[in-house]
Amino acid sequence: MKNEITGFDSHFLWGGATAANQVEGAFDKDGKGLSTADMVPYIPKSKRGMNMAMDVTSEYIEDVLAGKREDRFPKRDGVDFYHRYKEDIALFAELGFKVFRLSINWARIFPNGDDAKPNEKGLQFYENVFKELKKYKIEPLVTLSHYETPLALTRKYNGWYSRDVIGFFTRYAETVFTRYKDLVKYWLTFNEINVMTHSPYTGGGVLIDRVPNKTSDQIAYQAVHHQFVASAIATKLAHEIIPGSQVGCMLARMQTYPVTNHPDDILKAQRDNDLNLFFTDVHAKGEYPSYMNRFFAENEIVIEKEAEDDTILKQYPVDFISFSYYMSISVTTHGDHEDTVGNLVKGAVKNQYLESSDWGWQIDPKGLRVTLRDFHNRYGKPLFIVENGLGAYDTVETDGTIKDTYRMDYLKQHIEQMKEAVKDGVNLLGYTAWGPIDLISMSTSEMSKRYGFIYVDQDDEGNGTLNRSKKASFAWYKNVIATNGEEL
């Protein structure tokens, strides 16, 4: 009897992924409050740093609210999914989606985060979206917090740095679980939770300048602890309120290689991988790993916990692990290597064996197989790739077509490695390509960094009709899904 696995099983969940703050728009409609994402400006490429969200300060926010700034905030407008969701979901259905990953904007449900009652119009909007997905038999995969902290919680409590926010998040989670218990089975708690240590404002609405005399690491890891506890409580609530529900964590996986086989480089890569996997270690194993003791001690980080925190983490681990994967990272202890640009990554150096995207991200399909195998061996839990894609400049031809063969090549190579990982024995639930429709970039708030199979007519300055059209990759991905990944 042969037990060989040859490909994806018949229940494999193919689809795409978005975030509310990058697609919805309607930032001030139907009772929605401001979120942290609504305060991230667009700055032309010639003037911006690596990630403008890192530059948001208390003073900047107050100046914007007082009308002292005239910046443009593209995430406030998105690509108008709020009014066009039926059109967009119909296109997703035409692609053959089995699952669509989206997020709920917390400030659309509780405009200030700590409101006594939820906003009914916000609740109704997402109910309408979920019912529209169900009409096409598309499973929603819903992220509770995807870089969308209510701005009022940042101004009043300094976001997730305050333990008070656990209670507000718990009430939010309970509210949406109860409202959508018959519509949503798959949930994620925090998007790319490790980004808190790179950009506390992005990851949790935390303003470093509000906490004097403490390092950014101390602030970030304390805020992450509060998110860990909140995630565990949300997992408990989901299981109680929604029978058969599945709750996952979500990590920005930064697979790290040593540039050389020098033992110092190997140790550095191992340490960096541990610091990245720390977040899934806590979510999946329910406890802080021992290797963090030294890191905390050497960086003078002290995590303040309540007596019950460790018990809560242990009792309510996640059901599955989800992650984003765009590239791998190479590091060295030597200074004689060429630097490369990476998303939220400092100190990464060029891997001579890899090509790079238009934004300098090094393309490494086999790194995805390495990542899947590592996760599988480390945790033994089901895995879900919930972000993977190529941000690139697209050219609209005179006849209106967009020949994005580069996007098809990127995805083809990664899906091939997914298949190899499944043959290796990895339990892979599904794959949601990032940005099935063009959207506002998280890190740069630009539109020209396009990921979609569906083109949206809008430029970096917000000009355009917002009309949707199909790129060449649309038909290609439709066939990938129809053949369950057999025809690439």
Please tag this protein with its features.
hydrolase; 13% strand; 488 residues; 15 helices; TIM Barrel; two-stranded parallel sheet; alpha/beta
Secondary structure elements and pairings:
Layout: E1 13-17, H1 20-23, H2 58-65, H3 81-95, E2 99-103, H4 106-109, H5 120-135, E3 139-145, H6 151-157, H7 164-179, E4 186-190, H8 200-204, H9 216-241, E5 246-252, E6 256-258, H10 263-285, H11 291-298, H12 309-315, E7 320-324, E8 329-331, E9 355-356, E10 362-363, H13 365-379, E11 383-387, H14 405-423, E12 428-434, E13 454-456, E14 468-470, H15 472-482
Parallel strand pairs: 1-2, 1-12, 2-3, 3-4, 4-5, 5-7, 6-8, 7-11, 11-12
Antiparallel strand pairs: 9-10, 13-14
Helix pairs in contact: 3-5, 7-9, 9-12, 13-14
Keywords: Glycosidase, Hydrolase
GO biological process, one term: carbohydrate catabolic process
GO molecular function: beta-glucosidase activity
Largest sheet: 8 strands, parallel, barrel
Shape annotation:
globular
- How many domains? The number is 1
**What order do the strands of the largest sheet run in, or round the barrel if closed?**
1-2-3-4-5-7-11-12
Overall CATH architecture: Alpha-Beta Barrel
The counted number of beta strands is 14
Tell me the helix content.
25-40%
CATH superfamily: Glycosidases
Might you state the CATH topology name?
TIM Barrel
Backbone CA Rg: 21 Å
Quote the beta fraction.
Answer: 5-15%
SSE topology string: EHHHEHHEHHEHHEEHHHEEEEHEHEEEH
Low-pLDDT runs of 5+ residues are none
Ends apart, CA distance between termini: 29 Å
Structural class: alpha/beta
Rounded mean pLDDT is: 94
What is the CATH C-level name?
A: Alpha Beta
